[in-house]
Design goal:
Layout: E1 7-11, H1 19-36, E2 41-45, H2 53-57, H3 60-65
Parallel strand pairs: 1-2
Length: 66
């Protein structure tokens, strides 16, 4: 989901960072940026696509059959 106004900052987390820590980290980073720069900043998580080559090549029917 893209920010409608302002600047969007994308953050990528490595696999080792637990989901429970990611949300609070994004919020803290956004609060810090908004407090230090006079801009409408939105910090969001960069979503990873499906990196499995096998799944990408499969049809929806084949994936549903698994």
């Amino acid at each position: 989901m893209m920010a409608e106004h302002g600047l969007q900052v994308l953050v990528t987390f490595p696999d080792g960072v637990p989901l429970a820590a990611q949300g609070p980290a994004l919020l803290a980073f956004e609060k810090h940026l908004r407090a230090t720069v006079p801009l409408d900043v939105r910090v969001v998580k960069a979503l990873k696509g499906d990196d499995s080559r096998l799944r990408v090549m499969m049809t929806v029917e084949k994936r549903n059959a698994l």
